[in-house]
Amino acid sequence: MNAAVSPHIFDVDQDNFETEVLQASLKTPVLVDFWATWCGPCKSLGPLLEKLATEYNGAFRLGKVDVDKNQELAGVFGIRSIPTVIMVKDGQILDGFAGALPEGQLREFLSRHVQPLEGDFEEEELEDLPAESPEQAINRLQQELASNPDRPELKLDLAIALAQAGHAAAAEAELNGLPANLATDSRAVRLRSQLDLARSLESTPPMEVLQQRVHTNPQDWEAHDLLGARLLLGDDPAAGLEHWLLILEKARDWSDGQAKKRLLAAFNTLDDTELVGRYRRRMASLLF
Hints:
By secondary structure, the protein is an alpha/beta fold. 56% of the residues lie in helices and 10% in strands. The protein has a 5-stranded mixed sheet, with helices on both faces.
């Protein structure tokens, strides 16, 4: 897809980056996709980004940088792997990610920064707006893998979907089967950290019991620690991080510095750059 198909998608090069990305982002956020024609994951990510740019109807613009044709521009931004995507707003880099995220995670990423604008969508298109469920993603990815066994990046997408659906063992099996270049992908590292943390909770009390223990004894650091892990893997990661910061503040040396270890591991499991940055700064203020 290009500007002839959608006015919200355009090619970026060294000549137009200043005006079409930096200056334009003062009015409308610009999502910049660094890609190449030979890049396998780019072939799955690119169409999803283009679909969302059209769907969002001008809430953001999608700029595409062919790194082979714009090596200097890629070098300025320190692009080490592709695809890499950055969100530029008010002339500054606001957020970003590396690797080919599935559609559900792309929508989650975009929702942190922009909201779709109303447009003249057909009824059939509106029905497609809700993100697919993890189980739907599993079925889709399994079918795509059967048709494209030479695309290992789909195995990573499948591992993520399996983990989101609660199939930890199957997710870990997919992770263990990844080639070396994908095993070190930021998403793979993050998922492995999440699975390791979940495994450590298998024989621990349920959340309600841990909450009661904390209520009864605010200095029950073990309960704070386990509750932090459950919240991190649940729906309130910030609340989980708060429990470990409390331990770090009140009982830094508890369990051989467990709170600091937990925080550092937690940062590897989260893809919310703003949240991680905020809690890294708070952790540093307690340590130094």
